[in-house]
Write a structure and sequence with these properties.
Blueprint (H helix, E strand, L loop, with lengths): L10 H21 L1 H20 L3 H31 L5 H37 L3
Length: 131
Amino acid sequence: MGLRGKKEFGIKRFFKSFKYSIEGLDYAYKNEQSMFIHFIAILLVTLTGFFLKINTIEWLFCICMFGIIMGAELLNTAIEAVVDMVMPDIHPLAKIAKDTASAAVFVLSIMTAIVGLIIFLPKIFNLLGWF
């Protein structure tokens, strides 16, 4: 037996884990503005990637960055929820936890934007005939 009397393995538990994951994505999409913004950015980058015909390696970088930024945003949302549950009052340590989780997403967002610029700017410049 695992935690709280759960079976450690089983097909039913396996499929329930997918259900819970989808519920988490749904919650974040509906309740976190930054998650919605990331979804829109991913859609725009994907459409631009098809339009500019980025290569396989460039797609791999984009897909990895999509996963990294969305994963970080989901972790940030989870950290904020746990901090709010444990510490409903304002506390300096709660602020540090929430701010640093948010800062992690911010840093990864900047890195994602840089990767995007490296991939897309030369193609856009080439399309415009700038070099």
